[in-house]
Amino acid sequence: MLPEPHRLRRHSDFSLTVRRGRRMGRRDLVVHAFDRVQADELVSSGGPRFGLVVSKAVGPAVIRHRVARRLRHICIDLVDVVPRGTDVVIRALPGAATASSRDLEKQLRAGLLRLDLLAPVSNST
């Protein structure tokens, strides 16, 4: 479970992130990111906060909840690497229902990397 301080809960936070933030589309996900610190918002600039949008287009409730659980699990690993004061909304597209967890993680990391929210992984082995 994603810890409470790292969750987006209010509709206004989701709207602000989707409308004023930057967006990067992937095959099964759309990643929206909004920097609260840079935008000078009055919200505390704690760690990153993540929100999920998994609509009925993804599938029935069982599938939607499975996709959301997978995405939440991926977000737990990203809490320490996404910059503080960043809100991230992940919108699942219908293809997310059949995508593996590994694919979803790759797509999410690629989207965050393109939005300059992750440092590139160096393969120095």
Automatic annotation (TrEMBL):
<keyword id="KW-0540">Nuclease</keyword>
<keyword id="KW-0255">Endonuclease</keyword>
<dbReference type="GO" id="GO:0042781">
    <property type="term" value="F:3'-tRNA processing endoribonuclease activity"/>
</dbReference>
<dbReference type="InterPro" id="IPR000100">
    <property type="entry name" value="RNase_P"/>
</dbReference>
<comment type="subunit">
    <text>Consists of a catalytic RNA component (M1 or rnpB) and a protein subunit.</text>
</comment>
<protein>
    <recommendedName>
        <fullName>Ribonuclease P protein component</fullName>
        <ecNumber>3.1.26.5</ecNumber>
    </recommendedName>
</protein>
<dbReference type="InterPro" id="IPR020539">
    <property type="entry name" value="RNase_P_CS"/>
</dbReference>
<dbReference type="Pfam" id="PF00825">
    <property type="entry name" value="Ribonuclease_P"/>
</dbReference>
<comment type="function">
    <text>RNaseP catalyzes the removal of the 5'-leader sequence from pre-tRNA to produce the mature 5'-terminus. It can also cleave other RNA substrates such as 4.5S RNA. The protein component plays an auxiliary but essential role in vivo by binding to the 5'-leader sequence and broadening the substrate specificity of the ribozyme.</text>
</comment>
<dbReference type="GO" id="GO:0001682">
    <property type="term" value="P:tRNA 5'-leader removal"/>
</dbReference>
<dbReference type="InterPro" id="IPR020568">
    <property type="entry name" value="Ribosomal_Su5_D2-typ_SF"/>
</dbReference>
<keyword id="KW-0378">Hydrolase</keyword>
<dbReference type="GO" id="GO:0030677">
    <property type="term" value="C:ribonuclease P complex"/>
</dbReference>
<keyword id="KW-0819">tRNA processing</keyword>
<dbReference type="InterPro" id="IPR014721">
    <property type="entry name" value="Ribsml_uS5_D2-typ_fold_subgr"/>
</dbReference>
<comment type="similarity">
    <text>Belongs to the RnpA family.</text>
</comment>
<dbReference type="GO" id="GO:0004526">
    <property type="term" value="F:ribonuclease P activity"/>
</dbReference>
<dbReference type="GO" id="GO:0000049">
    <property type="term" value="F:tRNA binding"/>
</dbReference>
<keyword id="KW-0694">RNA-binding</keyword>
